[in-house]
Design a protein that fits this description.
The chain is of the alpha/beta class. It has 15 helices and 14 strands.
Length: about 375
Amino acid sequence: MGAALAVVGDATDPATFGGTPWHILEAGRAAGVVGRGLALATTAPAWRRRRLAFSAWRLATRLERGGFQYSDGFLSRLFAQDPPRPDETVINLFQLYPQRLAATHRAPLWFYIDQTLTQLFAGYDTCRGVGPRIAADAIARERAQYHAAAGVIVRSAYAARSVVEDYGVPHRRVHIVHGAANITREALAALDGSDPPPRAPGPLRLVFVGKEWQRKGLDRLIRGLALARADGAAADLTVVGVDPARLPPALAAAPGVTFAGFVDKRADPGRFVRLLASADVGCLLSRAEAGGLSLREFASVGLPVIAPDVGGSPEYALPGASTLVAPGAPDAAIGAAIHRLATAPDVLAAQRRIAWARRHEAAWDGPLKRIGAIIAGTP
């Protein structure tokens, strides 16, 4: 029958969380691991009113802001929209269940998370506004639920360390299954052959994918590109998913940078694959990152990467086809990495061969089969 897949949002909607729940659902169905996705949408106007009311109440009574989605009241209302059946195993992509569900559900409850709330609150600027007491309460419930769950599946060893060290969950109940690319196999079908396609002549073509440009280090990448070009490297950059109007003018107008806008991977997956496949190197330079699924998307089309040496990202970068850059590295180090790949064709060719040979590993099929084995007790 398969487990139910839960997330804060409608797991059946390809627009939820960059399509990750939808792709897990599709691969999970094919593997017989997931039977359905829970429709826990938060887009109705009533949710905005509840959020505002919660924030006003917390501010008035506790002098704290934010954190509505981590409250048990929010989660209880959320799961009431499409509750799992009493005999239905659940895989939750969020770090919390409603307390009542966690305490009374008869079937196994699992987690499949990219990072713990401890890591999220400490590392992501978007969570810095969550009040300390709200965060502490959420983490306390998270800890209890991890211990009570059938098991905790994480998408990196980085997340596993936090589950074990910060939450005290035994190693034997924590399982690592890396994430994969949110691209359909049909869209990737045109990329065939045992060897990478011949590289088109011209400058080194870099590509960046993401919306949170500051956390994901687009500013660092653009400044590094400028230094590499000033040092004689022929290189340019295509940016996918960022509106240049949201950038500082100096970054938006930087020479050698083209903005491709938002590309709907569901409505036009072919265009997204063509944009990636026309590049030479995929780039992500996050200051904080649980994993970085764009690295797996680059891998799915056989691209080497310049990747951040932070969080779980090194685990998503292929050895021999990656250049790791620390979050505190100066722009000059980024420029040097770009310059090396632009001026050493043998190095780039070797990395492309490795990435191309392993591109099929970036699909969700393998991870879902692994999750199925873990849930069945035969990992």
